[in-house]
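LAB NOTEBOOK - FOLDING QUEUE
OPERATOR: T.R.
BATCH SIZE: 2
PURPOSE: Compare the predicted structure-token outputs for two unrelated chains run back to back under identical settings.
PRIORITY: normal
REVIEWER: second-year student, initials M.K.

ITEM 1
FIELD SEQUENCE / FIELD STRUCTURE:
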Amino acid sequence: MSERWDRVRVATARLGGEGARGSSRSFGGGGGGAGAAASASASVAAELRQASSRTVRLGRVQPQAPSHRTIYCNDREANLPVGYRGNSVSTTKYNVLTFLPKGLFEQFRRVANLYFLMISILSTTPISPVHPVTNVVPLSLVLLVSLIKEAFEDWKRFQNDITINSTPVDVLQGQKWESIPWKKLQVGDIVRVKQDDFFPADLLFLASTNPDGVCYVETANLDGETNLKIRKALEKTWDYLLPEKAAEFKGEIQCEQPNNSLYTFTGNLIVDKQTLPLSPNQLLLRGCSLRNTEYIVGAVIFTGHETKVMMNSMNVPSKRSTLERKLDKLILALFATLFVMCLIGAIGSGVFINRKYYYLGLFGHVEDQFNPNNRFVVTILTMFTLITLYSTIIPISLYVSIEMIKFIQSTQFINKDLHMYHIETNTPALARTSNLNEELGQVEYIFSDKTGTLTRNLMEFFKCSIGGEMYGTGITETERGGAQRNGLIIDEAKSATATHEKGFNFDDARLMRGAWRNERDPEVCKEFFRCLALCHTVLPEGNESPDKITYQAASPDEAALVTAAKNFGFFFYRRTPTTVVVRESHVEKMGKVQDVSYEILNVLEFNSTRKRQSVVCRYPNGRLILYCKGADTVIYERLAEGNHEIKRLTREHLEQFGSAGLRTLCLAYRDLSPDMYENWNEKFIQAKSSLRDREKKLDEVADLIEKDLILIGATAIEDKLQEGVPDCIETLSKAGIKIWVLTGDKMETAINIAYACNLINNNMKQFIISSETDTIREAEDRGDAVEIARVTKELVKHDLERCLEEAQEYLHGFSGTKLALIIDGKCLMYALDPTLRVGLLNLSLNCSSVVCCRVSPLQKAQVTSLVKKGARKITLSIGDGANDVSMIQAAHVGVGISGLEGRQAVLASDFAIAQFRFLTDLLLVHGRWSYLRLCKVITYFFYKNLTFTLTQFWFTFQTGFSGQRFYDDWFQSLYNVIFTALPVIIVGLFDKDVSASLSKRYPELYKEGIRNMFFKWRVVAVWAFFAFYQSLIFYYFTTAASKNGHNSSGKIFGLWDVSTMAFTCIVVTVNLRLLLACNSITRWHYISVLGSIVAWFVFIFVYSGVMTPYDRQENIFFVIYVLMSTFYFYFTLLLVPIVALFGDFLYQGIQRWFFPYDYQIVQEIHKDDPEDNSSRMELLEIGHHLTPDEARSYAISQLPRETSKHTGFAFDSPGYESFFASQQGVYAPQRAWDVARRASMKSRTQQRTSRN
């Protein structure tokens, strides 16, 4: 039976983030939880109603019948009849059975491959003028290379799955722990997870080695946040810690069906005939890890693909770049051209065929293709004959060349770029797919997560306002950036009392070291500090000294506030279930330190609906007081009458803090009488023990006491941005890229970060669409979900129409004011409705910046898809947690932030970088170069194949449209594979219009990619015109010159002499034409071009010098030797390429001088600049921090490089590393080309020696 549970099922899924849908059924309360959207139940109900009408479906909607599942803990036999899924997961794209059909399907999605399949079939018929091998072999090679690449990439995913599924975990077997792999885990098993290990499935938390049944969980893999979350087991299960005791546990779990809501969970635990309600506090999710806890014991609830993180997964998308899809249109245009050419030839054949041409021998019995009695059949058969004859118009080697170029670009250029190497985490950039390189050069919209992507998730107490007085003299990153933009210099001299530690970066001598006692109202300061020290759920850890203690908090904000209280002299260092102990300094008099124990009577916890947190505590002297902290909008509406001056001043300070990009909270307190408290506490206990609507009743009871508050002041916390984020966003904005921030954080926080990142400023017109309105609150108070949905939708519709009208006025005016849109998740849910989606899209596209707050991962993906599909713009999503996976997969390009914040986003991404600022290099340098190079490769392929095929087409007119070949079969087969293959690959790898530093110095150059300047139909038409022109030159010059020519024996030239001459001219000309198209030319270009031409001559010398029986090689036997013995050959070989290329040369000169591209202007500006070594000098500091292997790689990067001989720009050639390295004493691996280099150096040395 165990084999049944050991099976590894293969499914196409990727690890993902939170979705918006979840079970709304309750089994006794406990739903909701920190991080859920406001009014979660209403949102979920409304979204479920809207789900059927959505056209964009992302993530999976899981079946919810039956309505709940029953799990018998520690009893596999009882769970067996239900048939719960195993714990094995798969993220692969293929399996053994689907690889070949699905892989071939992927390949034949490409129009060219499908076309060549048809041509290969046609070439096996008698009507084909060419041998089947001519088409079958190239197609087979193309498919083989592509399938090998797909198999290699999927094999890496499979290896990763094996590693994850084989991770050991301790499972209770009898009365002892036994280690088994994750994949053998089953629902109902009791497991032990040790410190720093990941949870193997979704677990019900039973017991912990920590007191009070508490454990600390890191959710970095889910949401990118590195701060620890606190989870608490039910008191009834605390004893089931040791295996002997755990073996006695036979509980029954009734819970919701598997769903994709990360932050909600409802269920009951039935143990000893007692029913206990379960909440998200008892749920440990797969993908999270255990921290600061020796080990925990839990029961498996959801396994494998039914875990919440996997339920958020989306099928692995098969992404194709926009350029590749446009290439399909070009291929279709070539099809149309091919059809017209064949139609002309077929009609011509039907008209031409006639018995009057007696020398054709059309008397008596002739085959159908040349039977004058049935001209229609002649036309049809000739049509198919010409299709196979002109098949070279579609370049079969194009896709292989492009994939080779992309692969080398990814592995050698992107992955090894030291400008995208992060020293602190030792993390290089990683291209996880090579299909989307050029897409990086056309991105117009970036969708970014906030926490861990734009910010470091590092909160620091920075400023505060106490009793109407502002404290803190520091300069925020937002203020510093604004001053730099205005050309101001800020003096940031710090005082002697300035203190900087983790969570605290404050500078104001008026408050530090007890100086607050000298302020105007020290009693208010004392209340402020006590509120910071008491109103929280932080747990102290470690040594009870200020220097060594660490705080475990549910959010980094809380830890920062408690750290601030410590630095102000109110050191919280001990907590029990009922007391908090604070070491207070300078309270009675300066220098006096005393430990004070405060009794914590009630904690009214923070959630996204309340937006505040309160504690009721009793002082040692019996004073009862309620301390409250929360958002300013919530606190101000609960303040008592009076104190208008403090309220006004504090509000002004809050606005200043907000404009400086700081996160703000208001602090208030209220003294309570014993009678009032006792009456209220009875209601609180009743609400807390309620099994139905517990959260709602607790909120209602809290409102009864959280009123008539007295304002103390406000705090301002800085969420540190990642290094270089504002500059990166400013550069990307100049490049024409619009950046949207999609975050699960509250609106105030998101706006602050947007200010800090330079996304929003006070000069912008801001449109705010929020669900925090009186109308919606009133509807929510009535509790009717249908009414809430109706009211919210009407409000969103009205706001969208109003904002759109205002936006049109601004856009049509002359103010030039930029627009910004801020919208929260609840409003966004209705705005994404099909009836309102168009209005949202129109408004969003008119805004320079968009910030979406409190959004679920599913909404992130829907917004991305809205712009991707609705506006047809190229999108890029960047994030660092599993909640960003759907968004990453929905965009054209997905970028994961790697490093310290987990790997879920990276595993689902197309590219991985360590810091947001590396987007500058990834897009403006590598993306832009890749786009330019591949555009040139594609248009050049189009040109050279059209040129070659048109010469065959002109020949058809002189053969009575019979389908006679102009070229030998092998000429046609090897034209793309050998004679013109290498130079175009060299261009695709190394062509560089401007250097990397100039690409970042002039970000406006990137707009050419957004506008697709280099792959427009106009560009294709220019190449097509010159292909048409050159084909005429090749055909008619060679044929006209040969009419009067003769060989050394006096015979005139025949068909194969002329065609060989024409083919020689084509090979020489198209290779030289590529040099004209290059922006930078190195010796690799010369080697590849000359090598291709030499390869043709070597081939023709051998091929025409040998004749084998039973083939058609006798056609060109000895042809090249005859040709090269005539003046005609050399005259034609010199004249034809010059005449053919003269038109291109003239066009390029006129275009560059009178209609230049932006990059050509930059080239002219910097054409006399010396070689740019600045980028290498920037890397010198990196070299001091590298490992020996990294140092060697860095040393190699510093070796001499070649310089472009075409435009004068610096060009980093990959050649001769080992030669130069040996000269400088650096070890570098050998390269094939170095052998030739050393051989030539050796021969030269010997020659010099012999001369001497």
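ITEM 2
FIELD SEQUENCE / FIELD STRUCTURE:
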Amino acid sequence: MSTLLEIKSSVLRQVQVCPSFRRKTEPEPGSTSADLPEPATGAWKPGDGMEFFAHMRLILKKEEGRQGLPCPEPCLYNHRVAAGQLQDKPPPPARPSPQHLSQVLLRSSSPAPAEPVDSNRGLRALTQEEVEMLYEEALYTVLHRAGTMGPDQVDDEEILLGYIQQVFGTSPEEHIEAIERVKKAKAPTYTLKVSVMRAKNLLAKDPNGFSDPYCMLGILPGSGTPREQSGQKEKRFSFRKGSKHSSPLPAKCIQVTEVKSSTLNPVWKEHFLFEIEDVSTDQLHLDIWDHDDDVSLAEACRKLNEVIGLKGMSRYFKQIVKSARANGTPGPTEDHTDDFLGCLNIPVREVPVAGTDRWFKLEPRSSASRVQGDCHLVLKLITTQRDTVMSQRGRSGFLSYLLLLSRIMQFEHRAEESNSSSWHGEFSAPGSTVLCLHGAQSNLSPLQLAVLHWQVSSRHHQTCTLDYGYLLGLLEDMQAHWEEAASLPQEQEEILADSFSAFSEYGLKLLRQLRDYFPATNSTAVYRLELLLKCLDKLQFFQPSFEMCPFETELNMDIAAALKRGNREWYDRLLNTKSPREQPGPQRLTGLVELADIIYEDLQACYGIYASLFHGILKVDFFTLTFWQLEHLLAEEAWVLTEELSPKMTLQVASGLIELYLTLADTQRFWSCIPGRDGRSLALAGIHTPFLPAVKIWLQVLRDQVKWRLQGAVDVDTLEPVDTSSKHSSSAATASLCFSHIQELWVRLAWPDPAQAQELGTQLSQDMCEAALFYSELLRKKVDTQPGAVGEAVSEPLCVVLNNVELVRRASGQALRGLAWPEGAGGVEAMLPRTLLSCTQALEEDLQREAHTVTAHLTSKMVADIRKYVQHISLSPDSIQNDEAVAPLMKYLDEKLALLNASLVKENLGRVLEALWELLLRAILRALGANSDVSADFYGRFHFTLEALVSFFHAEGQGLPLESLKDGSYKRLEEELRLHKCSTRECIEQFYLDKLKQRALEQNRFGRLSIRCYYEAAEQRLTVEVLHAADLLPLDTNGLSDPFVIVELGPPHLFPLVRSQRTQVKSRTLHPVYDELFHFSSVSAEACRRRGACVLFTVMDHDWLSTNDFAGEAALGLSGVSGISRPQVGGGMRAGQPITLHLRRPRAQVRSTLRMLEGRTNKEAQEFVKKLKELEKSMEADP
């Protein structure tokens, strides 16, 4: 046995990993994955259907990009990365989802299309005289530069002068002459702007833990002595205690801030101007003191001009305070000296050219001083009284900087030849240095500089495209300074407003041609659009700040109007190109199909790319605006054309109308999938009505073309697998594709009218069922004509045909379930329309039947071999071991199943295994029936064979399930083998045991019998009381019966002294009442507990002139009778409740035991069989 079990089929263990049919789109045999050439769509004529389905595939393939509806992206991070932007920024948080439409649309990161430029939209051209004045201004700025250059600035005078020469394009001689002329001009007056902002972490000098700090500051000349003060200068000093300066204090004065009481972190934000005589040697000196009395600081500052001849600035300041206080009113204490908190000494030459805004650490005045804290200063070195023509003519520094910046930008940007639209405003080091020098010397504030750079760059952008990121940065910079600084002078504000108006006008012009300049397929262009929209959004920030608004209406309204106008212009251009109205209807139809496809793709781009940008940045619902406008225009054109073509309906026109309708239906579905969409009805609503005749014509043609295509595919099919990974042939792949295309077409149609959809869907489903059955018939005829190999037990063509049927069964079933019309949109069988469900079920039954027919045909070639090997087992002598006798059969099965596994898919292999299992069981039953009076070893060998086959076909769970193996014929065979091994008495006991196990299939069919039964142990007597019967079968011609009941105990060998008894006959009734008591003596309790011991009740119909008729029987097991299973309580003879038994007739299992006994020759078996046969004569045929 152990040797045999090692022969378990390795093939069956591989069943689970057998590839099943996968739902995948396969190319038709002989076709390639390359795009198919577009076939002609004239009149579809009879043929092989290839041209028709090639055209159908083109229609469906067009919709592959329309599957799914993504969520709009909140940002375009991916697009920026593709455009080479945002390299250092972290990616946004991942979104679940899906496939996003933007990933499909953004296919290119090539440069964006060139935007329109107009030289007239820049700043006005300068006259020659203005150019010369600007040239002089630039030279003067460089030659009189002061301060420290930054690390990124150029400090070489020759380089800066040479750069200016290049910018203005002067000759060397003119350049040298101009430099000499500027050098002779008077030098400007230098002034140091000092803003004392705040201090922090000062020492606490007062008992309350705080101080009352104030600052004194002035210019320390290079000689170390204080400046002489003239009377005229002193008159300009205007200071009141406790108030701010009405204007900056005059230069050459020691100036003082307010006192900030009780704080260690004072905030002053006071501004001062100091004239500088020698930039290279002068120093700014600042002291911070703690104010300790009520002496007027203004008076102290006035007195300081009377104190002269002191050495050392710190000592000078302190002595001034002491001297001033000596003439003041003393306080309540004798010591009124202010406490020193720290000082600063800053050489003027160390002030950066662009100024500085930083914290300075406070210094002690001597090594004995103890100070701490920092002071925040803003320092800037500016010039006044510039000896240039431009200054003499009253041109402000603001205007001269604007002209100089424009000149330098034109020069720098022109030098950037390749991809000029990506220029970010990076000036060269000399250029940025010259601009920095001029801006600082002209005392331009950060806000003014930001305004000037925006003004020049935005104008220059309209003549030579710049990067929108650079322009957005300028706006953000201007916004930051706008919020901090005071408003601009009116003239400068008007200049800024004009620049805003010009830029917004330029931006609206671009948005009108959105699709041309910012195509959704170009990630670079889309990123530029995002930045442009952000620039326009920034303009709205400044709108409330202007006294004179630069925009006549809200910018959002202007943008929406520009988009609408652009949509209409784009649509009109497309219509005139694709479907001009002067063309005939059929020609216009072709163009309108193309137009509808383009509009759908554009709506996808609007939703997937543009919508999030416009809504997220400008709060403009661009998608809704565009959808309603284009949908209305397209619907209007479609209604007109369908009305014109309805009287001219030809096959060619119907084909074009189908293609047009599919796109229109997709457009409607697109809108229905938009979350939060407007509830208004579309202009396309009801558009399906004029397309109905075309759809009916198309479906009629489709029905015929499918059959022609299947016929052609089967004709060329060689019934060989299409490749090594597939087990079906080429025709099955073609049929599967045909059904798939039909389902896709129906889903795409999505016919909205329920009644019409039911009519179309019913017809289409019937046509598909006919096509599937037509294909199976073609296969059967094909395989019948194939010559089979002599002696071939496994037919390769039959295996392929079986796989083909299975593939088509699944493909057609899936396609049919996909044909649900509106009321069955759930896609579940229980939800399918009744007509479609019945059609699907009928086709499933037909194809399953076809598969079983092919399976039977395939396994029929193995019947002779299986019988031969089973006969070998039955004829093997007893001297041979069981596993040796069974080995040839197992080897044969293993070889054949290896071939079947290689040729069949999993489902079909399971069918073949089930068929082979049934063949084996029948062959063994046949062998058992052909042999009688054989030894017990004979049946033992077949029992061994059955166990081995179960193990072989189960294959450790990889083959057939045990529930399937041990059902049906297996149970019958196992029972016969078991009974053959039993003795005669064991078989008789089994006969009664089967009766006890038998259940009534229909409880009320043969009626019921009510009895009471109990055992009296003292007398060893069993008492049976027959009470009544009900609902018996009418066995007489009058519709009644004459029933009586036979009561007997069994098996007979357990109760040899007991005879059967019977009730009286109750005439003409189906509900007899007996109330008769029967006693069975000499019945031991031990016998009643034996296996199969029972009381058998047989109900008969009494006939006077013929044999009594059998009406039914019932058995009651004695082991559960009162007195046997439990002691009897009390002395009542009628203890226990009545028992209702349902009558029945003997089933096959009971009769199989009887047949087993018939084959035995001993007396006991023959007598038992004889008795039962007499009873069987009175029984009717088993229902």
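REVIEWER COMMENT (ITEM 2): The CA atoms of residues 479 and 542 lie 8 Å apart.
FOLLOW-UP: none requested
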